[in-house]
Amino acid sequence: MNLTKPVKNMSRYLKRLKEDDEACREALKSGIFLLYHKLSPLLRETSSGIYTLASLKTSDLEHILEKVGKDKHFVNESFLLGCTDKGEPQFSLEVGDIDRSALEQECRGMFVDLRKAFFMLPGPESPLAAKGQALLRWHQTNCFCSATGQPTIRNQSGSFRVCHSSGITYYPKMAPVVIVLVSDGSRCLLARQTMFPLGMYSALSGFCDMGESVEETLHREVAEEVGLEVKNIQYSGSQHWPFPQSSFMLACHATVNPDKTQVNIDKAELEDARWFTYEEITEALRKPPLDPRREPPVFWVPPSYAIANQLIQEWANQQQLSRKLHGLK
Ligand SMILES: NC(=O)C1=CN([C@@H]2O[C@H](COP(=O)(O)OP(=O)(O)OC[C@H]3O[C@@H](n4cnc5c(N)ncnc54)[C@H](OP(=O)(O)O)[C@@H]3O)[C@@H](O)[C@H]2O)C=CC1
Ligand SMILES: [Mg+2]
């Protein structure tokens, strides 16, 4: 089978590459590579001034590696990410031990911190950039077995690491987090942590404790952080979130009784939490993406690549609909 041809069933194809070292090594010969320098992805500016993730073909990457004094077999250190629409296997490669500016020059691109890259990349490319970084980070921090202290060995695709001494297999992990937009019917509750950028408020969130369901985490986190009791939980969607380590965000809507809205903030967790009106929210959603050269606005919400933004947008749409139904503007 020629693995480079467009593949009808991508999922089966990727499963094979994940599990079969030989097939994956073969796929590396005709892969598409995303480079990271100390976990910062390589971006390129197109002729129309738009930034995209730079993707290099195997032959181009090997050529560049040789030019910067690195063995071309270094491509084998890559990790499998997925497949392009054309069926080309995609890989991420950490090149942090190579001179950064020499690489940037050879690749005609620049390595950009992932948080900054999220603001520069077109929407659909952000999750791929995040996945590439997350996988590299996981491998960098799981080189040893936590039971024996012996080195763990990766398979070719990077879908797991194994300790041959204990026989334990380690798989890349995400920590589940519940994020919830609480509404009292006409307002929604947003909060900020001291570490948030100035003026940014987001939905409430918290890591799931061992053994908890999504609903249990949601009730506990809202009670802990703002002292409220929620009901009517509705699932909205999910997202992988790479910061600071890989989280798996499960996003929900919930409501509180309109006569029990007094917030009691846990100051150890939150700097502030307050109710926002529909007008305040729609104005914040209309604001253009943050310009790092300008002062941040007094109140703004997470940008569109964050699932918090999706929750806030959905809430605003719902409010708009019910206002129309009630003859309000
Ligand atoms: N994509 C999005 O739209 C959004 C994503 N998020 C993400 O959600 C995550 C959780 O939100 P946050 O409100 O801070 O969570 P929590 O409310 O649970 O508060 C963080 C606390 O959990 C501890 N902690 C850190 N990692 C873990 C873990 N893996 N398991 C259990 N506890 C942990 C922290 O300890 P320590 O003192 O060590 O830090 C800190 O005390 C963050 O990574 C944040 O970036 C949040 C909002 C929006
Ligand atoms: Mg929290």
UniProtKB/TrEMBL annotation:
The keyword Hydrolase applies. Keywords: Hydrolase, Magnesium, Metal-binding, NAD. Pfam families: NUDIX, NUDIX-like. The keyword Magnesium applies. It is an enzyme of class 3 (hydrolase). GO terms for molecular function: hydrolase activity; metal ion binding. It catalyses: NADPH + H2O = reduced beta-nicotinamide D-ribonucleotide + adenosine 2',5'-bisphosphate + 2 H(+); NADH + H2O = reduced beta-nicotinamide D-ribonucleotide + AMP + 2 H(+); NAD(+) + H2O = beta-nicotinamide D-ribonucleotide + AMP + 2 H(+). Its cofactor is Mg(2+). Its EC number is 3.6.1.22. It comes from the Eukaryota. Residues 172-303 form the Nudix hydrolase domain. This is NAD(+) diphosphatase. The gene is nudt13.
